[in-house]
Amino acid sequence: MSTIRASSGHPPLVPSTESNAPPRRSAPAQRRTLRIGWLRATLVAACALLASSSDARAEGKGRAHVVEAGQTLWEIAQSYGCKVDELQAVNEIDGLLIQPGQRLRVPRCKQQGGSSSKGLHVLSHEVSSGDTLYEIARRYDTSLDDLRRRNDIKGNVIHPGQTLRVAVGKDGEGRPVAGQSVGSVVRGRLVNGMQLPEGRGYYRRRPHRAWGASHTIHHIRRAIASVRNRLPKVHEVAIGDISTHDGGQLADHRSHQSGRDVDIGLYYKKRPRGYPKSFIRGDQQNLDLQATWALIEALANTSKVAGGVDIMFLDYDLQGHLYKWAKKHGVSKRKLGEILQYPRGESSASGLVRHEPGHATHVHVRFKCPKSDEKCW
């Protein structure tokens, strides 16, 4: 190829192979292009640095937890081995109020339970109907994080019959973090009682008498959450006595000694004056039969679960109102017979719900002993 020289004496140019080559840019245009290119490169680098920094901060703050219906900030903190103020700080929460579906950041807490294998024994736990990952973690005094890690679980979904690996103490026994029922409901006590926390949907009339076995607290909160999921506009329900911190004799009660009894108020069409600070007598005119039935049904559904409902006590006339409402709204005769004593008479030994004088203002619920509480009967 021959070289073409310009007549002006400038350095030689190689002919372009493009037939439509753009004209050469002027020096000012080239400088503008360089400045724009430099700005773009700087912006991209800054974004990458911010993303990297954000990822590092996210890694340092741990993982995410999606709040489930009925959960409290205290329970979530306990399940991850954290303190409430640690969760509040990382999520910029001032109080204790959280919402179902809310996404919380969980820091990697220094005292995170279940993180060390030293002195631990790994056993197998077969999931029963009604079990939750959170409940199993509490039962064995471990953390959700450790349960997920050992069983390659990403979220909270487990299935009846599934076998989980659980790390416990050297003796191979699970130690409930709180709320172990000992003895009977009329001659018993609580070991490390668990207090029903403040929560959405209910009001604790006497918090110092709101201590119970861990499974009792769990079932109470799940039943109330179930009612609110079905009927979001219902008012708060009154929670009466469960037990004191250590159980034992409780004034005004023969039972309520081992954290497995609870008095729960009723739902009304219009919240009565003084309720839920006081129990109010229910009748056909003032009761919200739909919501009250939803509560009774949610509690009754636990009866086939370990530690579920053993028996409930409710005025016979109120049972009659509930029976007629439920039958009218399609509840089967078989299910009604399993749950209610009505219409077989006040002395009948049928149904989970039985008549007891003085129970027209509330339902008395008694839960069975869970398998983990070996000294409970």
Automatic annotation (TrEMBL):
GO-annotated biological processes: proteolysis
Domain spans labelled LysM: 63-106, 123-166
Biased composition (Low complexity): 21-30
The organism of origin for this protein: Haliangium ochraceum (strain DSM 14365 / JCM 11303 / SMP-2)
Stored InterPro entries: LysM, LysM_dom_sf, Peptidase_M74, Zn_M74/Hedgehog-like
The name this protein goes by in its record: Peptidoglycan-binding lysin domain protein
MF-aspect GO terms: metal ion binding; metallopeptidase activity; serine-type endopeptidase activity
Zinc as UniProt keyword: yes
Region forming the signal peptide: none
